[in-house]
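We close this part of the discussion by returning to an individual protein. Part of our work consisted of pairing the sequence of a single chain with a tokenised description of its backbone. What the numbers capture is local backbone geometry rather than side-chain detail. The amino acid sequence and the backbone structure tokens for this protein are reproduced below.
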Amino acid sequence: MIGSLGALIILVDPAGVRQPHRILVDTDVDTDDVFALFYLLKQDTTRFDLQAITVNANGWSEAGHAINHIYDILFMMGRDDIPVGVGGEGGILPNGTILPNVGGYQPIIDQGMSTAGECRYRQAIPVAHRGRLDVNSNYGIRKAFLPQGGRRYTPLKQPTAQQVMIDTISSGPTTVFLMGAHTNFAIFLMTNPHLKKNVKHIYAMGGSVRSNCLKKDGSGNSIECADIGNLYPQDSNPYAEFNIFSDPFAAYKVLHSGIPFTLIPLDATNSIPVSKSFFMEFERRQDTYEAKYCFQALKIIRYTWLGGIFYEQYCMWDSFLVGVALSTMRNSHNHNGENKFAEMQYMNITVVTSNKPYGALDGSNPLITGYSIPKFNVHKNGVHSGHVQMGMQDPFCLQKGKGKCQDGYTKEDTGEDAVRVLVAVKAKASHDKGSSLGREFYRSFLNVINSPERSGRFDIRSQYPNHKEALYKPDFGKKMRGNPIVFDMDMSAGDFLALLYLLKLPVELINLKGILISSTGWATPATIDVVYDILHMMGRDDIPVGLGDAFAVGQANPSFTAIGDCKFSKAIPHGSGGYLDSDTLYGLARDLPRSPRRYTAANFVKYGAPRDIENPELRQPSAQDVWKSVVENLDPGSKITILTNGPLTNLAQILGSENASSVIQGVYIVGGHIGNVYDNSKGNLFTVPLNKYAELNMFLDPLAAKEVFTSSLGITLVPLQMQRRVSSFSTILSRMNATTQTPELVFARRLLSRLWQLQQQHYRYHHMDIFLGEILGAVTLTGNPHLNQTFTSKPLKVLADGDIAVIGEITIDEEQGKQVKVLENINSQAYYDHFTRVLGDHRQSAVLASFHEQERLWTSRPESINIGHNQKL
């Protein structure tokens, strides 16, 4: 049925005074969303009052990085009063019952009782460069620019997205701005129908309605486009736009809610790209901290944009949404959406959620498959009952010339499923005919972002009178160097504990030459900044850190390797006890001192960048870069020992490099579960119940594991069975409490205490002992005789193919197995004593204890600062 827009509500209190428009923003915190937030925060709060922000967790950013990014923006802008919500651990039952606090990590149709799951839609978003890695770090400038306030993500204390939405909308009439997938807000509407009356209007950026493209001649005229969406490659779905495609069913529910709705689709935003004249004017006008932050991001995006068509392709998406919405809201009697910035038109549209023929039972549609009564009471043969796109390589959708799937298409429709909405169709030209800025919104954005009113208070440099970035590197003098070690870590909590242990060992015993980051494990790639901060704390800014590939072997899309599937990584929860906590180190990462080293998108052409950038010496090396550097700088006759604490993606890639085996002394692998050897214990793949005996490090990249276990390398395996023997939180914490309290021991104790407390408090943290056991590999590596370690040789084989129930399992195979040295026993009490004694040793201790100590140095007089760049160790 074609609906109609309700009358706009004018808020007036009993005394006749006009009240400000109350606004809630739901955002995926992409860079253009950040521009939009600043534009909104700069408005007069007596007219437009931003009440709350919720983070959309299944879009362009990861929840842990996004929430702290928002907190730092609000701190800079003096708006710590604004509540921010993210995530939640609620689920959706098989019968469609939605439990409280669903986190929005999955599209609604795929949401079960866990925050782990498939990525049928989200796999369209690049994971690493020019994707979520760059968004999470804001291309590397976030930590370099934004100040750090007191608010942060803390496990079990962070307000959820649903809590914040309920609290905000129940408090009074609220206008909602949707800047990402509609998951959070659709769940809110489905579970709180009584509050729908408090939602005045919805403004959403997303979708693509009509096939219009700008001509390349600069005339501003439109021509017919072959593909109207912005997914890439478009060989499966040329119709969808990212925000709507991320959760089509949610967008459908929001659109059909009966709430007045205004859409700002690609039709309009394609007509307001970041033009060269706008960019140059922005470069000239950076009068506020927020303007500087926005321009620095825009500048590096331009440098890294592929194809040299940045000025044509990068548009003012969400900032344009906010501009159009606020301009419309200023005219309270406006029924036709008139505003300063966009031409508007009523259209009858719907959101495509499945593909014809309807009623198809091909296993693609979780609303229909396996149910006698479809989920959420959708009709068996209705618009939600067709084939649902299962990824960017779905055979049903792939078609030469033009893909045939339409999931997420905001399609014009004249049938009973259509809704009448206001749609922005084109950006208005500048009122000033003589201006080089061709669009009226260009001028408004620059004026607002540079206004001294409601401006940011400071950046990280101006926040502290003596802010200075200094690298701390050790001076080992004439000390003999021990065995060269390369540590391959996936940045789980246990890996950071193992790293602290390695950094504390005498350099005469262990010489840590490099760190490789596995991006296919427990944390997302942008968490590499936490590794840099740990090294900075310990005075080891000399150790190079390389970032590994974003996908497990065979998971990247062959047509566009920046995107790929999550067949194995889907086992990691996105919420509590998963990526959310790993990316923030369970809320403790912000207690670490800030390193001058951090991830940056800056790069050289010779390393794959589209063009050289300023200060390319700051570029982020890859894992292969670091490995090659370590090999090239080896002393004659030396060989490298590798310790792996995550998936074996990096190691498998190293094996493909020239003469790799000849320079590797041996490999210590933490992981694997040898089924039914020691006992009948199960593996730890707790989110994949069909798979009983696999261990996560093997499962997360089984083809890489198979390659390593069929190589000529000498392997020492520290299996899951042995890790479990040294996973007593109470024992290790009691030892720590009785040991000398160095800064690194204090930090490790705080982290372990938090893991233990969380395990006792909430079922989502039942697996925390996994991370405590991961320290064992680093300790085994040292070969301390007091630990009474014993090993046996076993012919082992990794199962990498076939049924999901066996992938990642390690079996004993006398015929095809590789002889592997397996840790079989250790003195656990001696192990706990040894680990805590090493961390409590005053030698090779932290040069900066914490961020608070760093703050003290930055606020002290320069002459009172006595930490040198080269610490004598």
Summary: Confidence is low (pLDDT under 50) at residues 1-10, 868-873. Residues 172 and 255 are 21 Å apart (CA to CA). Residues 21-353+407-456 form a domain with the Inosine-uridine Nucleoside N-ribohydrolase; Chain A fold (CATH 3.90.245.10).
